[in-house]
Amino acid sequence: MNKKDKNMVYPERLQGTDGIRGRVLKSLEPEVSGLSPLDIFLKKGIITEQFIELYTYCFVSLLMKKKIAKKGEEIAVGWDPRDREGVFTGAAIRGIRKGGGCAVNLGIIPTPALPVYLTYRGSCAGVMITASHNPSDQNGVKLFLNPPGIKFFPEDDKLLTDEISKIDYKDVKSKKLSGGFRDMHSECIDVFLDFICDRRNSWVKNEKLLKNRILIVDSANGSYSEIASSAFKRLGFKKVIDVGNNLKREVNQNCGVSDLEGISRVSPSMVFKDECNGFPKFTENITLKKIFKTGRKYRDKILKNRAFVSGAVFDADGDRFFMLEYDALKDEVIVLTGDDTASIQGRYLINERQNDFKNAYYSNTVESDILASLSARQMGFRIKTTGVGDKWI
């Protein structure tokens, strides 16, 4: 068993903006031989299944030391589909159980489903195995506490880092599975769908507005595959077309939000090689091809306001969203980022319920578009700028 480097200076925090992420390799690969799981992560930025097991074990141990959890309490764990063999997700479950927690297996779920289910079931904490919008050769861990499903803050990260630095993986490996195991995947999906389709949680106040809207749903071959389209159908969209929903393909590849970062409009010449040379990262993008094909098919109806063609684009774990809209006049696709859609939602709230939302806070991060803040201030909101990460919002 590889030992920790005693001369290694450990950082205050192993975590970045939202947990840990890195390229993944199995612990037996030659590239990582001779190093402990923690040293592999620190020296090479590589996550092994042993490091995941160590990480979740220490997470549960910390919760028990801080009296947040008791032995045998439920720790829910979900993931996106990039780990097809279950090497890293299985390690996460082992770490939870060796730490004395009861692992509640939620399987492949969108990240937003985890805090919803924690609240529903009353589990004390949750673990999400994902690298979000990062390439499929990477993975990571996000942690949640309940109530109300909040993520770890920097001081929490420091405590967990200290716990990890004190424990040798060989001691974790030799431990028995003392905690229980429950499979609650189906219930979690049902609860989440009911939650997001509940009219009290929906922006859809008039179903008639959706009856002539065709929606292309891109789940980035990730956690929202089938789930997002089921929700949109329940909400009343005229037609829902699934793309990027193949769990056997690589996540975030030729689909999802990553390719659209920094793009506000997409012209046909950027997508189709026969109309120009094509924009390298768009020539294989299945979502853009589908929205152009569908938009052109319904172009006459769109120009008469009898149809609309839109797109809902997510990342692998479903916590990032872009909206696409086909512009029939220019034969282009408009890309609306989180800042854009938040501005639209803010304007809707001010117009519909001015007395409730005038001078209310509009919160975004330091990485948000400054024009979004200026627009929100002009609408009548007070601006609150936070650090990067949804935990601060």
From TrEMBL:
GO terms of biological process kind: carbohydrate metabolic process
What InterPro entries is this protein classified in? A-D-PHexomutase_a/b/a-I (IPR005844), A-D-PHexomutase_a/b/a-I/II/III (IPR016055), A-D-PHexomutase_CS (IPR016066), Alpha-D-phosphohexomutase_SF (IPR005841), Phosphoglucosamine_mutase (IPR050060)
Among PROSITE patterns, the record links this protein to:
PGM_PMM (PS00710)
For this protein, what is any one GO molecular function term?
magnesium ion binding
Give the superkingdom in one word. Bacteria
Any idea where the Alpha-D-phosphohexomutase alpha/beta/alpha domain is?
45-169
State the needed cofactors, names only.
Mg(2+)
Keywords in UniProt for this one?
Phosphoprotein
Q: Does the keyword Phosphoprotein apply?
A: yes
Family statement:
Belongs to the phosphohexose mutase family.
Name of the protein in question: Alpha-D-phosphohexomutase alpha/beta/alpha domain-containing protein
Q: Lineage of the native species? A: Bacteria, Candidatus Schekmaniibacteriota
